[in-house]
Design goal:
4 helices, mainly alpha, single chain, two-stranded antiparallel ribbon, transmembrane helix
Length: 177
């Protein structure tokens, strides 16, 4: 008889308590995200910023006159509202600031380029007496800085289980027994 033993069959490993089961993806991990998808989303974010900056530069001078009393800068209001919606929306729906940063970079970059006089001498962002041009020049930058610097809001927990309370906030047991 020989003392050689057959190797034991590997035991089925149970997942650790802090890791999800292999057949269930973690809640924080993106599902199906590849390098191509990431690069495409970066390019789309940058292009969205460029498009919003170009459209805002073209429409920011539009006004509506109310019976000759005053002019409402409807183009500037809509352009600034669109910038806020774009950047805040990207920050809210995406886990990272990167795509919002790239959109802000495209937005501020194209506004800066379109502010310069063209070779023919035409100016898309004039320094008018109402300050609409100055407002459009600096508002996207200020909005981008505020939106990107704003701290991340706490996410709601998706499962029905309550989050564990840190030990410093735990309520001590009562001596009512």
């Amino acid at each position: 008889m020989s003392d050689v033993h057959a190797p034991a069959a590997p035991a089925a490993r149970e997942p650790a308590a802090d890791q999800p089961a292999p057949d269930q993806p973690a809640a924080d991990q993106p599902v199906g995200e590849s390098v191509v998808v990431r690069i495409a989303s970066w390019v789309i974010g940058l292009l969205l910023g460029v498009v919003f900056g170009m459209l805002g530069t073209v429409v920011h001078q539009s006004t509506i006159s109310f019976f000759g009393l005053f002019d409402l800068p409807i183009g500037l209001i809509l352009a600034i509202a669109a910038v806020i919606c774009l950047l805040v929306g990207l920050r809210l729906i995406l886990p990272s600031r990167l795509i919002a940063f790239l959109a802000a970079l495209g937005l501020v970059g194209i506004v800066a380029v379109l502010t310069l006089p063209s070779p023919g001498g035409s100016i898309l962002v004039p320094a008018d007496e109402h300050g609409y041009g100055y407002t459009w020049t600096f508002a996207p930058t200020v909005i981008a800085l505020v939106v990107l610097a704003w701290p991340r809001l706490a996410r709601r927990q998706r499962s029905g289980h309550p989050e564990p309370v840190p030990s410093s906030q735990a309520v001590p047991p009562s001596d009512a027994a």
